[in-house]
Design a protein that fits this description.
- This protein is mainly α.
- It has one domain: ABC transporter involved in vitamin B12 uptake, BtuC (Orthogonal Bundle).
- About 75% of the residues lie in helices and about 0% in strands.
- The protein contains 14 helices and two strands; from the N terminus they run ββαααααααααααααα.
- Strands 1-2 form a two-stranded antiparallel ribbon.
- Strand 1 (about 5-10) and strand 2 form a beta hairpin.
- Helix 3 runs parallel beside helix 8 (about 230-250), helix 3 (about 90-125) packs across helix 12 (about 300-315) and helix 9 (about 255-260) crosses helix 13.
Amino acid sequence: MSRYGSHAIDHTSGGTRSADRGPSDGGPRPGGARAAGPRRRALGRGRLFVALLVCLGVVLLLVLVSLGVGARSIPLETVWRVLLHDDGSPEAIIVRRLRMPRTVLAVVVGAALALAGVVMQAITRNPLAEPGLVGVNAGASFAVVVAIAAFRVTGVSGYVWFALAGAVLAALLVHTLTSGASRGHQHTRLVLAGAALSASLGACTGIVTMFDTEAFDSYRFWVVGALENRGSEALTAAVPFVAVGTLIALALGPSLNALALGDEAGAALGLRVPRIRAAGFLSIMLLCGASTAAAGPIAFVGLVVPHVLRLVLGPDLRRLLAFSLPGGAILLLVGDIAGRVIAPPGEIEVGIVTAFLGAPALLWLVVRRGAVSS
């Protein structure tokens, strides 16, 4: 329950209640009726905790499956054994040195993109908003192309830092362009500025790759969004930024709930709306920038996961933020495993799999919103 005022939003029950209602207007009754409310709320929290544990268990199971699936399949009991004890066998080398960094990167990137999607949709109040909307993907892509063409950088370890810098600069530029807008139009200008900057940087990226075939050959393997051959360098570079962005996003949960009522209502409840928006934008920038730098542009994770969770959990952003972490990890692990199973002995990059899954979901959301609005 929100702490603002006596007539507060009860996010646990999904409705509103008055803190000072009496027996004459349907308020608390003596005895068992008075105690029923706390019991129901505690039961709801208990179910949420169990559901969160189930999600974490699914993540753990998918991690084990991911470690065992590939060009050389390894049984789950062997995977578990070599995880507990590195015996120097070929299976241990494959699991611990080749597949473990890839699997952990899938968990980190999936969780970061889903969490950024929840924050993005809350700040813009646009249910179709996606983290790439703020120019992060376009900025990272352009920076990688510049690194290849101008500095002849090769390898993911070199791409990561350029991509992160490009994503951060693009996001800061979008934030600067929207900071002068009025409070009521700020989120609209954010979407428009992000789309315009993405189109401009995409055109610049296309021009560079058109005239530099070497840059195009190197860039095309990064831009599809993939987890293989990233190595521990990409994971090491991304984790600190993702950790900071995650802490900021989770701390913003109660404030984002109040902000969902509107900027004016949030300000009336005592929120410093510009600071909350800036903090939310900072978390998006860190989460998306680090994820895109490590794995390349991966679309639709930040769009699909928040909508699925919203259908199951309701609109409470504190719940959505918490469950988006395992939810995003599950989606990206499933996509990565599916990409390795669909076309053996080769594989399909996870960015292609998520696009294949996310595009129909986006079309369904657009059609559904149009049907509701009509």
